[in-house]
Amino acid sequence: MTQAEKITRVKTLLDNDTTATDSLVTVFLAEARDTILNRMYPFGIPTEVTDVPTRYDTFECSLAQRYFLRRGAEGEIVHNENGVNRTYDSVSDEDILRNIIQVAKVG
């Protein structure tokens, strides 16, 4: 999936939210990429690795969507507004990240 396709996919996941600009979605995609690569390579990302494998493109887009939706409420511990309750302490996104296979060299 190209970067443009990823941006389009994230915007679609966000129901074409008008605040989801290409540059903002690109930032969240970069954060999602870094999260996936850090999960894949727990002992350090090899210098030749610059992007996630294509099999993880949808996970990257899903993480970017979540990051976008959480903006402004990072680390929120309790919030109640008009009957909507939010509680964050530590958001791990483990439901997505557990699908990432770790890679390590045996030496």
Please give a structural write-up:
Helix 1 packs across helix 2 and helix 2 crosses helix 3. The chain has one domain. It contains 4 helices and 2 strands; from the N terminus they run αααββα. It is globular. The protein is mostly helical. 45% of the residues lie in helices and 6% in strands. A two-stranded antiparallel ribbon has the order 1-2. The mean pLDDT is 87. The longest helix is centred in the N-terminal third of the chain and has 19 residues, at 22-40.
Radius of gyration: 15 Å
Instruction: Report the uncertain regions.
Output: none
How many beta-strand segments? 2
- Give the percentage of residues in beta strands: 5-15%
Strand/helix succession: HHHEEH
Number of domains: 1
The largest sheet, given as strand count, sense and whether it forms a barrel, is:
2 strands, antiparallel
Q: Which bin fits the share of residues in helices?
A: 40-55%
Which of globular, elongated, flat, extended, rod-shaped describes the shape?
globular
**Overall pLDDT confidence:** 87
* Tally of individual helices: 4
Give the termini distance in whole angstroms.
33 Å
The order of strands across the largest sheet is 1-2
Q: From the helix content, strand content and strand pairing, which structural class follows?
A: mainly alpha
